[in-house]
């Protein structure tokens, strides 16, 4: 084997390794949104007393962000198993801060577009309702993103308070 053949074989081996790594990264990039969507829906479905679902998830690695589309969490009545809408949002944009990632910290922003929060008042005090809603919201945020939030934005938010009549007809 001559010297030129050895050099050609080394170059060919380097190119094969390079193509393999690029192909592997491309496959991971194509599969990752579906894996994240499945994990998120599994986590939301496992919330005790609640059921949540995400319709679509878009991943933007360059921005360090992902966009959640058509998200909702429903409260499940323990006796009838009937769902009552609780929290929903048309779009949720979660982005990471690259500078913090280089310092081994997960810091980011969370923006809700057209969120709707529904509070139902049955036989509960307003303080208890507020605490329960905060608990749901915090549970969802902890399961969705395990990072420190520097900004939480709500664009065109709606808050509905549903009350039951004192004397049913």
Strand content: 35-45%
Q: What summary fits the major beta sheet?
A: 6 strands, mixed
Q: Can you give the helix content as a percent range?
A: 25-40%
Order of helices and strands: HEEEHEHEE
Could you report the average pLDDT, rounded to the nearest whole number? Answer: 79
Shape descriptor reads elongated
Protein structure class: alpha/beta
- Please count the helical segments: 3
Weakly predicted, low-confidence segments? none
Strand tally is 6
Distance between the termini: 97 Å
Round the Cα radius of gyration to an integer and report it: 23 Å
Summarize the structure in words:
Helix content is 39%, strand content 39%. It has helices at 3-45, 98-101, 126-144; strands at residues 50-60, 65-76, 83-96, 107-121, 148-155, 158-163. The longest helix has 43 residues, at 3-45.
Tags for this model:
six-stranded mixed beta sheet, 39% helix, elongated, 39% strand, 169 residues
Give the arrangement of secondary structure elements:
Elements: H1 3-45, E1 50-60, E2 65-76, E3 83-96, H2 98-101, E4 107-121, H3 126-144, E5 148-155, E6 158-163
Parallel strand pairs: 4-5, 4-6
Antiparallel strand pairs: 1-2, 2-3, 3-4
Brief rundown of the structure:
The chain is an alpha/beta fold and 169 residues long. The chain has helices spanning 3-45, 98-101, 126-144; strands spanning 50-60, 65-76, 83-96, 107-121, 148-155, 158-163.
């Amino acid at each position: 084997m001559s010297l030129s053949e050895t050099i050609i074989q080394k170059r060919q081996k380097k190119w094969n390794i390079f193509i393999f790594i690029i192909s592997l990264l491309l496959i991971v990039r194509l599969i990752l949104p579906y894996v994240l969507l499945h994990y998120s829906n599994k986590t939301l479905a496992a919330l005790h007393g609640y059921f949540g679902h995400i319709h679509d998830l878009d991943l933007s690695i360059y921005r360090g962000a992902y966009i959640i589309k058509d998200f909702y969490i429903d409260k499940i009545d323990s006796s009838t198993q009937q769902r009552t809408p609780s929290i929903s949002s048309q779009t949720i944009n979660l982005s990471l801060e690259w500078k913090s990632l280089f310092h081994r910290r997960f810091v980011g922003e969370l923006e809700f577009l057209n969120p709707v929060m529904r509070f139902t008042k049955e036989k509960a005090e307003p303080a208890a309702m507020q605490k329960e809603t905060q608990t749901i919201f915090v549970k969802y945020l902890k399961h969705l993103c395990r990072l420190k939030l520097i900004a939480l934005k709500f664009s065109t938010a709606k808050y509905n308070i549903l009350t039951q009549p004192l004397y049913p007809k």
